[in-house]
Amino acid sequence: MPLIWCSISGHGFGHAAQMLPVLNELSHRVSGLRAILRTTVPPWFFDGRLTMAWEVSPVEQDIGCVQHGPLTIDVDATWAAHQAFHAEWEKRVVQEVSAIRHASPDLVVSNISHLAVEAAAPAGVPAVGLCSLSWDGVLEPLLDRGGPARGERAEVVRRIRQSYGFADLMIRATPGIPLSAFKKVVDIGPIAQPLAPDPTRVRRAIGADAHEQVVLVSFGGIPLDALPYDQLERLTSYQFIVSGPVPAGSRRVHSAASIPVSFRTLLASADMLVTKPGYSTVVEAVAQSKSVVYVRRYNFVDEDCLVAYLHRYGRAAELSSADFASGRWGAALDGVSRTSQPSETAPPATGAAEAAGILAGYV
After folding, report:
1. Is the N-terminal amide bond of 177 cis, ω within 30° of 0?
2. What is the pTM of this model?
3. pLDDT tens-place string over residues 250-272
4. Is the domain defined by 3-190+351-360 classed in CATH 3.40.50.300?
5. What are the beta bridge partners of residue 57?
6. Torsions phi, psi of 169, nearest 5?
């Protein structure tokens, strides 16, 4: 039976979320396809979402960024982690080559580990990258921040770029950043997975009145440290759904765990989102015509293209990090509620089908 080796970054859940629609589409095209998910993303994330035979091989694939919550990169810690990761680079490559050879897959797909791409070559397996960004692109803007050893940091970026050069192909999802490290780049449309809304059930579960808008507060796989619960309770036109526990007696803030639907159903059923500009959330919000209030981080390389995509094709408003932390959300929520839908239609979410068509040629 055909086998695909999927190297998925464990930096949050965004990389796994981007891969899921592609793998599901590919499994419809390739009979009997199986997947080894080489990732530290926990298996529960794939349960009920990945519609093919799969198993997780929990090995660290890359570093990404070390963060304090979803909004702040710890630049010093990020460079230290990358330097430690690359200090044993040759050993890591040898181990990865051995694992790939043992599994004998038809194809290695990476989102977006340079380790998997480099190891695929001596293992004799074609490697394809699939993402909207790359780690050299993420790290390059941080070269002059976080300590004096610029030369050592530049060597990390050079090492990543060299490894990416082994890829047969890079598939770049829209919207995406420049990807100069790859010898061949093919652009595809946005990647989004169909969502099944159930607003009546969600509104009933949280006791939302007819005049109240339901706001999903979601910042991806890296949890928030805190929320301004007292201030949110005063926003009388809104009901909020958040990850994690909420204070006892909350009238307007509800834990997602208390609502008997999936996160994807919550996203499809909410009237608006409060979030950071992350790929899957942005693309799916636009596809679902959801209003978005976003908190920028200003040091994530793909943020500009995602924010531009939001404003070009959707209804969006920025909330400063200071206003977010202090609970001054009202003006942004009210403003985006009154914003009309742009006249320009978003590109259709054909990315999963396009990527699957390309990958099917390998398996």
Report:
1. no
2. 0.94
3. 999 999 999 999 988 999 999 99
4. no
5. 38
6. -160, 150
